[in-house]
Design goal:
Length: about 425
């Protein structure tokens, strides 16, 4: 078999055979298929699609390219959540210890931010001393000590996806439902969780800009998980406006701690509790307490503190703050009808919260704080946003990103419900 034959088959809208898929993924992982050949194939897949059988074969081949983790030695069921990514999406931070406090183990392999969406590991690294890289034995130790662990995937997990994702990122081939579904699910299945709740974001701040595309992605991922023996359910949730009031690494940790202390913005609390209930149900845990109670009685906070300390972090340390702030004011009086998620994410990125290339550092303190959310009444000139950065030259670029971000009108505008649909 050779790469050109496989590329031509997909270029000409053919269906790839199981053998072709196994061969091309294996050969690419070994370095026998060149990056330029794989990019041509990824582009052919983006343009011509793959059917469910091809996507399942592609996912299985990526799983087989590396190790598979096994949590069967644990005495409680495992549950995991994956978000397709958004602006202000810090839900993993309160959710993982919350679900642990309610009786399931949460082995959560997370990623870093790229572009306008933040990454859980970048947020957690704002906590002084906290370590993202753990060996498999260390992961098991943290799970036993705290019930939840949030860390980076080791290099042995789905190495084909690691290589391919980096290539897609620089060849305009990220936005393909078959490639996104197989990329996410190969890692989640290889991670060895018994159950999985997918939070598929919809709107300007997400990969999927509209509900039909998000539904197709969710259905594809649920089918892949279920066929691999992982109890999988997906929620479609709103990402037309930012989630919560904080966007940026340390700022989002601060907001997550507020949620764990029984407070925090209503949308973050609602989604955290809803996802926790879904995870416990998918894991088959008859929870010893309801997630809402575990946020109020301090048990989720206790699990958070144990988890941070077990990974070298100091849960009492002061979080980094950006050196400079600037206020953006409401342009008129009335109802805030729109505050665009993508624009706010782009502003936070330009303030230093995100990275342009994988190897770039991020600023822990940079980001955006929202003083109003769509539906709120605002007065002309009142603070709408506070921008945080370490370098004042970044303000102009952030303000430029926010130029058309908000609208003020007479009545509430159309916005997506927080939870749009549930796919099983
Ligand atoms: N996240 C992933 O892990 N892979 C994708 O392709 C897109 C988002």
């Amino acid at each position: 078999m050779d790469a050109i034959e496989v590329i031509r088959a997909k270029r000409d809208r053919g269906e790839l055979t199981t053998e072709q898929i196994d061969w091309v993924i294996g050969a690419y992982t070994r370095g026998d298929v060149a990056d330029e050949q794989m990019s041509a194939l990824a582009m052919a897949i983006l343009l011509n699609g793959m059917n469910r059988r091809e996507i399942a074969d592609w996912t299985q081949a990526m799983i087989r390219s590396g190790e598979r983790m096994d949590w069967s030695r644990l005495d409680r069921p495992t549950a995991d959540k994956h978000s397709t990514g958004g602006v202000g999406d810090k839900i993993t931070l309160p959710l993982a210890p919350l679900v642990a406090a309610c009786g399931a183990y949460v082995p959560q392999l997370s990623g870093r931010g790229l572009g306008h969406t933040g990454g859980t590991l970048d947020k957690m690294e704002a906590i002084p001393g906290w370590r993202a890289s753990l060996s498999n034995d260390e992961m098991l130790g943290v799970l036993r000590a705290a019930g939840a662990v949030v860390c980076a995937a080791g290099s042995g997990l789905a190495p084909a996806d690691k290589k391919l994702y980096a290539l897609r990122d620089v060849t305009g081939t990220v936005e393909s439902i078959p490639l996104i579904a197989s990329s996410i699910m190969s890692k989640k299945i290889a991670e060895g969780t018994g159950s999985l709740v997918l939070d598929v974001k919809v709107g300007s701040g997400a990969f999927m800009k509209n509900v039909p595309d998000a539904r197709e992605l969710a259905e594809t991922m649920v089918a892949l998980g279920t066929d691999a023996g992982v109890r999988t359910v997906a929620l479609l949730t709103a990402m037309d406006r930012p989630l919560g009031r904080a966007v940026g690494n340390a700022l989002e940790v601060e907001e997550s701690v507020e949620v764990l202390a029984g407070g925090g913005p209503a949308d973050v609390v609602e989604l955290t509790v809803r996802l926790a209930r879904e995870m416990l149900a998918a894991a088959g845990v008859s929870a010893s307490k309801d997630p809402e109670t575990a946020l109020k009685d301090g048990s989720a906070m206790d699990a958070w503190r144990r988890m941070i300390a077990a990974q070298g972090g100091d849960p009492d340390a002061l979080l980094p703050r950006a050196a400079e702030t600037m206020t953006v004011e409401a342009p008129a009086s009335g109802v805030l009808t729109r505050l665009d998620a993508y624009a706010v994410g782009l502003a936070a990125w330009r303030l230093g919260a995100g990275r342009a290339r994988k190897e770039d550092p991020v600023s822990a303190g940079a980001g955006v704080v929202l003083h109003a959310k769509p539906g709120d009444l605002v007065r002309a000139g009142q603070p709408l946003l506070t921008l945080h950065t370490d370098e004042t030259w970044r303000f102009d670029r952030a303000v430029e990103a926010l130029e058309d971000a908000c609208a003020v009108g007479e009545a509430s505008g159309e916005q997506l419900p927080l939870v749009i649909d549930r796919i099983t």
